[in-house]
Specification:
The chain is an all-alpha fold. It is built from 14 helices and no strands. The radius of gyration is 20 Å and the shape is globular.
């Protein structure tokens, strides 16, 4: 892994320069710094130690929030914060501290709304009405797909943890519309994660409410096809939202063992996602007696 401390030293020097300069130079310095932090994100994705990654992400998110105070409409900062808080919640909180995860998913979602408002489709704000919201989605361009996906990812994370709330039932329809637009623009974005969203929804709700385990499996298999079986989170979701819900114990074991036995470097550049999948697989395997 590239030493995170090295670029943090550079960041500190840039910040000190910015604080002693005028507003224009301050923003220029911050935007230069943001570019450096994008490389820091790449280094974190390559990390194989969960605790190092957890501490690095948490500290860097607070640093980014400080930068955003000085440059509130910076799309790069808004993107890093949306992706960062949502990913942190998924990787480190939702299995052990769902209330904290829920709060941080909402924080990510709110940054995502601000990020979307830097795009042409949502430059006039986020509509409150579903019909108007879906009309704006049709205007989202492929170049703005990251803002759409990560906002939907964060919002969907909150909905998944709060399904007992009436508000979540309504908001799920909006998230589904967003993820459908992601599929239309590029179904393979971030290893087909929009398919994982639909698979988890279709596999976790009763048939009378629109659930369909076999359609869920189709989405999971498509996600695995798009990542050539290397994005192991897809196997974890398949185990939880297809194998467990259909009481297929053999398939449940098969999916999770595939994750646990895979090499850490199966997906180069995204080793962190692999070790997160392994940790989630271990936790899910430990709950097997509850699920079957």
């Amino acid at each position: 892994m590239e030493p995170i401390q090295n670029w943090k030293t550079v960041l500190l020097a840039v910040i000190l320069l910015a604080l002693s300069s005028g507003c224009s130079l301050q923003r220029l310095a911050l935007r230069t710094t943001t570019g450096l932090m994008v490389h820091g994100v790449d280094a974190i994705y390559r990390e194989t130690d969960l605790e190092i990654a957890r501490m690095a992400i948490a500290s860097n998110l607070k640093l980014l929030e400080g930068f955003l105070d000085a440059d509130p409409k910076n799309p790069r900062l808004l993107g890093l914060l949306t992706q960062g808080f949502a990913s942190y919640s998924l990787a480190f909180l939702e299995d052990v501290a769902p209330e904290r995860a829920s709060a941080l998913y909402l924080r990510a979602r709110d940054y995502g709304f601000r990020w979307l408002q830097t795009t042409p489709a949502f430059k006039d704000g986020i509509p409150d009405q579903q019909q108007a919201f879906e009309a704006r989605l049709k205007r989202v361009r492929k170049k703005d797909l990251p803002a759409l996906f990560w906002t939907a990812f964060a919002w969907g994370g909150w909905v998944n943890l709060n399904r007992d709330l009436p508000r979540a039932v309504f908001e799920l329809n909006l998230v589904k519309a967003m993820m459908q637009r992601v599929l239309e623009l590029d179904e393979g974005f971030f290893f087909g994660s929009a398919h994982l969203f639909f698979g988890s929804i279709l596999g976790s709700i009763p048939r009378m409410l629109g659930g369909d385990p076999e359609k869920a499996r189709e989405h999971f298999e498509r996600a695995l096809q798009l990542s050539q079986g290397k994005f192991l989170v897809a196997y974890v979701y398949s185990a939880r939202y297809y194998a467990a819900t259909t009481l297929n114990e053999t398939l449940f074991d098969q999916y999770l063992n595939k994750v646990l036995e895979a090499p850490v470097d199966i997906l180069p550049g995204y080793q962190l996602m692999t070790v997160v999948a392994k940790e989630k697989a271990r936790r899910l395997m430990a709950r097997k007696s509850e699920l079957f």
